[in-house]
Each structure stands twice: as structure tokens, then as C-alpha cells.
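User: what does the whole thing look like in 3D?
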Amino acid sequence: MIQKINSLSIIIPAYNEAERIAPLIANIRKFSDADIIVVNDGSTDHTADEVRASGALVIDLPFNLGYGAALQTGFKYALEKGYMFAVQMDADGQHDPSSLTALISPVIQGDFDVVIGSRFLSDSNYKSPVIRRIGMFFFAIITRLVTKKKITDPTSGYQAINRKTMELFASDIYPVDYPDADVIIMLYRKGIRFTEVPVTMNRSIGNTSMHSGLKPFYYIFKMLLSILVTLLRSRGEGKV
Amino acid sequence: MTLHQRIFALLIGIGIFVAIIEMVRRRKLGEEYSFLWLTIGIGIVVLVLWQDLLQWLTHLIGAIAQTTTIFIFGLVIVILINLHYSVKITKLSRQVKELAQQIAILKVGGNSKSY
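Assistant: Here's the predicted 3D structure for the full assembly of 355 residues, as C-alpha cells:
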């Protein structure tokens, strides 16, 4: 591995992922010796025990805060411990660790502050539900209009970031309830250099998706509002 | 407004005012939160007693019945109170999130040796 010990952390927010978290950690270890930090978001199953048994670090939130806030906890911890880089990954096995090196290399080399893993730049076996696909397409267009950059997968939660970006994500302006396409626009407004690389994604096996039930409607509303206010805010706000 | 309506509105206004003052006295309600509530009570009393003001306001907002003016006044204040709560809840949620995150991070530091 190119990175030295303790400079790269892989942050995985996990909520009731007892079945999937240990295989994921084992899988990550095949491709990287980075420190794995699992933020246990108030799981009611034995997610934390599974993680401890596999030797990764667990941050135990006292109750469920939601995906974004759990992720932010990981960034805050990583900042405190002096990590230079972080990769954020979903706990459900959707994000394939084989793409880790491709994701983190441009950030470590200093070419970019953020690298987003896109499931659409490559021929992955990922097939998302129709509603989700329409939403992603819609936000990809908005993101492209605002940032004038072609981002094919703005809703991807598989990202590599550097310390400067971690500081931004740990601040109050990070949209903790659904960090998504609005984050890309925030990055653009803050002058953070970002790009996309193709990654392999697997359609997550089993039940829980972040976007189910009535949530897609709230999601679309929230995202539009969040993008709007991100654009209305002054560029200097939350400056790191 | 008929005498009947005025007496009723006056009783409501005074009732709200007295109830709020009593709650603040017993420390059940913070002074900060009592402000808007007291405004409703006082506002109703003032509008009922000061007929010219009520007449003028009714004309201003284009209402026909004076009762409508009092009703709208109360409704607007209630909306403001709710908005105030939403702002407070947003702030409290953020603070709770911060606390939970800090506690979780502190707990890691306390339990492990090498990190």
C-alpha cells in the first residue's frame, strides 16, 4: 500500500448490519490496510459486536442519528485522530472494496480533494429501482447545470476525501439528514476540487434501503430545497 | 361586534393572560416562551376594548366582521408561536446530535489504547 499507517481511514456508518458488516470488513482488508472505522448508528442488533470481533474500530452512537450524522461522526473522529484521508462507504456491501485504490489514489496524489465513485461510468452490474433512477437522473442534470461539470452519479455515497474536505463535512453546514447531490453543489461553491472515477457497485442484497416507502418524495423535496438554499448562501459560510 | 361577542372575547383574552402569568409564576413556562402567548391575551383584550382600532384594522385587512379581525390576529400569533418552536426544535436537534457524536467519540478514546 502506498499510504502510510494511520493516514487513511475507511468510515462506514452502519445501522443494523450485523449480517453484512463482518464479510464487508474482511473484503476491505483484501484490498487495503487502512484503518476501518465503523460508526454504529444505534443498531438494535449485534452490529457492534461483529465489528469488534473482526478487529475494526467501533464508534457507538447512543441512539440512531441517521446516515449523514453517523458519517459526520466518523469524519469528526478521523479529524481528531489526525487522519489525512478518508473513504466513506456504505455498510450494506453495495460499494465494492476492489475499487478502493482507484478511488483514493487521485486524492492521495493531491490532484483532487474529493473523488466520487460512480456506478455509471463503468459497466457495473448495478441496477437500481426505477424511482431511484429517475431521481438520480434528475439530480445529475441539476448538478451539471450548477457546477458545469459532468457528474454521472451525484448521489453516490462511495467517496474518497482529504482532510480539508473532512473539515468542511464536520462543520455545521454539512446536510446531515440526507447528504447527497446538494453536497456536490456545496463542494463546488466552496471551490473544492472533485472528480468521478468508475467503481464497481453491487445492488445491495436484502432489505433496508435508505430510500423506501414515502421517503423518495421527502427526499426529492429536501434535495431541491437544500440545493436552493446552498445556492442562496454566501460562499464564505462555513469556510474552513 | 355584539355585546355577547365582546364579553366572550374579553373573557378568553383575560383567561389566556391570567393562565400564562400563573404558569410563569410557577416556573412551568419560561419567560421567553410566554411573550408570544401573552401577546395573544393582551391583543384580544385591547382589540375588544378599543373599538376604533378594531374598526380601523378590520377596514385595513378588508374584512367585513370585526370578529374576523380578532380571529386572524389570534391565528397569526399561533402561527408565529409554532414557527418559533420549529426554530427551537431545529436548534435542539442539532445540539443533541453534537452531544451524541461527542459522547460516542469520547467513549472510543476511553476504551481503547492504541488509537
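In plain terms: The interface with chain B takes residues 39, 57-63, 65, 69, 72-73, 76-77, 80-81, 172, 176 of chain A (CB under 8 Å). The longest strand of chain A covers residues 8-14.
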